[in-house]
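In this section we turn from sequence analysis to structure. A common task in structural bioinformatics is to predict how a protein folds when a small molecule is present, because the ligand can shape the pocket around it. The inputs are simple: the amino acid sequence and a SMILES string for the ligand, here 2-acetamido-2-deoxy-beta-D-glucopyranose. Study the lines below before reading on.
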Amino acid sequence: MDTAFLLTLLLPVAVVSHTLELPRSVQFKVGDRNELRCRMLSCPEKVKFVWTALGDKPIFATPKTGDKETVLIFDNVTKNHANAIVCRAACGKEMKELTTQVNVYSFPRNPVISGYDHLIMGKENVLSCEVSSVYPSEYFDVEWLYENRVVHSESGDFDKDAVSIPYTFTPSSEDDGKAITCRASLNIKGVPPEEKTKETSRHIKVLSAPHNVEVSGETAVSLGSSLTLTCEAEGNPKPAFTWTALKPDGHSVELGKQRDLFMHNVSLSDAGTYQCNVSNDLGNQMVNVSVVVQAPPVDTRIVASPQSSLKEGDSVTIFCKSSGVPVTRVVLSNVAKTILKTKEGAETSVTIDSVKLSDTSMFVCEAFNEYGSQRTTINLNVEAHLLDVELQPNGTVVSDRGSSLVLSCQASGCPHPEFSWKNLSNMSVHRQPKTDGSLSQLLFDPVEVEDEGSYVCEVTCGSIKKSKQTEVKVFSFATCPIVKSSGPSLAGERMKLTCTVQDVFPVNLFQILWLDGEREIWREESQSFSSGSTDLTSVYSLQVDAEDQDRHITCKVLLDMHGVPPSQVVKTASTTLSIHYPPRATRIIASPLTKLKEGEPVSFSCLSDSFPAGRMVLSRVVDGIRTELKTIDGVETSFTLPSVTLDDAGIYVCEASNIYGNHSDSLEITVKAPPRNTTVEIFPSTNVQEGQNITICCRSVSFPPPAVVLSKLDSETNIYSLDGVFILMNLTPNDTGLYQVNVTNDLGYETEVFNINVIEKRLDSPLGWTDFLTLAIFLGGSAALLGLVLYVWRERKKGFYDLTKGII
Ligand SMILES: *[C@@H]1O[C@H](CO)[C@@H](O)[C@H](O)[C@H]1NC(C)=O
Ligand SMILES: *[C@@H]1O[C@H](CO)[C@@H](O)[C@H](O)[C@H]1NC(C)=O
Ligand SMILES: *[C@@H]1O[C@H](CO)[C@@H](O)[C@H](O)[C@H]1NC(C)=O
Ligand SMILES: *[C@@H]1O[C@H](CO)[C@@H](O)[C@H](O)[C@H]1NC(C)=O
Ligand SMILES: *[C@@H]1O[C@H](CO)[C@@H](O)[C@H](O)[C@H]1NC(C)=O
Ligand SMILES: *[C@@H]1O[C@H](CO)[C@@H](O)[C@H](O)[C@H]1NC(C)=O
Ligand SMILES: *[C@@H]1O[C@H](CO)[C@@H](O)[C@H](O)[C@H]1NC(C)=O
Ligand SMILES: *[C@@H]1O[C@H](CO)[C@@H](O)[C@H](O)[C@H]1NC(C)=O
Ligand SMILES: *[C@@H]1O[C@H](CO)[C@@H](O)[C@H](O)[C@H]1NC(C)=O
Ligand SMILES: *[C@@H]1O[C@H](CO)[C@@H](O)[C@H](O)[C@H]1NC(C)=O
Ligand SMILES: *[C@@H]1O[C@H](CO)[C@@H](O)[C@H](O)[C@H]1NC(C)=O
Ligand SMILES: CC(=O)N[C@H]1CO[C@H](CO)[C@@H](O)[C@@H]1O
């Protein structure tokens, strides 16, 4: 009991005589039966008591009043009974009253813990502590205790009479079985201490999926011994175990549903992975164990890939592998015990990129581990390739310079042939070959003179070497020759013809022939070999004449090389000679005749030969006087006189000329005409004195020159004169008379008659006709007359006889 409570009960006794006794406050428990006693002991009389509530709230209790005291009975305390109740007591006139506070509490049951028995390990779990019918909840505290250690508390105003206090908790496996307590306290005065606190404890149950799975036991066992593996795991509820063998092919074989896996007489096939599957309601977990069976190596294999039968140069890989049991080391060696490769582990390999014939041997694979070793062998057989080489074109190939040529070297029977192109001196060729697989080509594009030579295609296939060769001959004969002459050549001179063919090769096989039409006229000596292409020239010199004009001279160039296409063997060039010469063979022809009669027609034709054709002039020359009749440019002309006259007589000259000279031809044209226009002149006069001399001059137009006959008409005597001049000397009267001049040529005659009168001179005897004749002869010899006659003769060419001219 509280000391304060005691004091309130004792004080009124000590201080007042007529005192009213009533506890200041009381604490009632809900559901209890309680009494509240109000007493006044000192009053000698019967005390009157009245119970009232301080507020409006009814009291809900039954009073039972005696003389000195009254008792208020609370049959079934409820929360409604909480009240301030006043007890009034009257002792006679003396009135006393006291107030008491009735407090009600309720805390009937222990807290109830829920959620403690299925906590999930590692998860956040909520435990709940429920306290019901608590009143007044304002003075209520709740604590969670883990193993007597407060881990959570809540207090105060829950404002409901049933409260649920959660506790959030993430358990681990250690928490399993530990105590968890919910302690509730109602901290109100007047509550008996044993009623004040109520608590409930529970043991936590933590559930967990299997974990900490472990397999114990020796996983490496020797062949024939036994194997025990134990699977251990934690987990709540207690997990179940399943052992399974995981086969390499993926499927699995269940071996048993117990913790331990046990095997007798372990064989190699027992090696492998084993799985322990641990499971409970919350899940499962598995662990793999690799069991190794310790045994000397087995299944040691040596394999040659792709095969052990090989051709030289093939690539091969030799695999050495030991499966079945763990192997620490594998050693690959050849039969000569030369170690090729050592490898920690179960396998190794050696690759020979290009096998040689000498690789034909046995290879050994040996696997080791701590329990022993195993050895296997393989025989590698290397054969040479059946190499064959073909070179196209083969033999000899003749190539035109500038064309393209491909030498194709084809190797067969060898997967990776190596080509090498050489010349006969075993030197690399300067052309770059193009090699692709089993074909190597040497491309000449264009073919050059320097490419001439022998080409050897050598193919190496491992230890086999084969070669083929081809000789390349080059010729160059691309253009036709060109013939040039030394220029227009003058007849009689030497002329040079030059035949040039450019860029020929090989020069020693070329020949130059000179042809005149079809006839070979000269052959040039072949030149000696020259390493490059050269121009080939031949000079042909000849003496030319006008007859050589238009001669067709051909320069024929021949390539005497076997294999050259026929169309390329011969090339020719021709030239036509052009000879210059002065005119020659000039001829003038008159047609139909050169001797003509007046009035007849005549045609002249002039012909000459010259080169170049020059000029041709036809002219007539009479008495040294030249008259040009026709001038043309050329070598032939003609000229016609439709009707000739005596004037047309003369020398006709045809002269041809060019820059080199002239040449002419002439002919004489005569024109005949009967005498005409005859005139007779008599000197000094027709009347002369006896003894005097008379000169008779006859003029006539006539050709041929006429004969002139003078006759005295009365006499028989005729005097002939060739020039028409008669001198009658020492005339007598007997000479008087008529005279006739008869001018005659073969075409006709003409006569003139005249009279001479001689006057007699008495003294002198006149000269007779016969004297005259002598005189005439004498006269003919005189120098003066001679000049006259000559003149007349020259004039005769014109057909005139004009004495007057001579006399003047
Ligand atoms: C008291 O009252 C409560 C509710 O009013 C009732 O449940 C209970 O039975 C009563 N107790 C007695 C003894 O009458
Ligand atoms: C063990 O097994 C092998 C073959 O699996 C058998 O040959 C041998 O006899 C067995 N040993 C024992 C002791 O059973
Ligand atoms: C492990 O066991 C559980 C429960 O038996 C099962 O559901 C599960 O499939 C098993 N796992 C394997 C891989 O066998
Ligand atoms: C066990 O081995 C199997 C098969 O090799 C594989 O699928 C699985 O993931 C492994 N389990 C564990 C836990 O390593
Ligand atoms: C060139 O090749 C042909 C066929 O390819 C062959 O008949 C000929 O004999 C060969 N000539 C030489 C010289 O090798
Ligand atoms: C081979 O080639 C080398 C250099 O290219 C040259 O000097 C030699 O004369 C050549 N031999 C023949 C036979 O062509
Ligand atoms: C050609 O030359 C090579 C080296 O370039 C040499 O090995 C080989 O013996 C020579 N062959 C001849 C036939 O000289
Ligand atoms: C013809 O040639 C001669 C001598 O060669 C020369 O004297 C003469 O003048 C030439 N006549 C002409 C027309 O050229
Ligand atoms: C010739 O005489 C004729 C008349 O009879 C005349 O016409 C002509 O001119 C003369 N001729 C000459 C050349 O004298
Ligand atoms: C006539 O001629 C002769 C001879 O010439 C001469 O001797 C003579 O004197 C001449 N007579 C006259 C008269 O002149
Ligand atoms: C002239 O001479 C010729 C020949 O001599 C003759 O035939 C002719 O009769 C002569 N004439 C005359 C008129 O005498
Ligand atoms: C001089 C001369 O001879 N006189 C002759 C002339 O002619 C006559 C007759 O004929 C002659 O008798 C003369 O003698």
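The CA atoms of residues 83 and 102 lie 5 Å apart. As an exercise, try to locate the residues that line the 2-acetamido-2-deoxy-beta-D-glucopyranose site and compare them with your own expectations.
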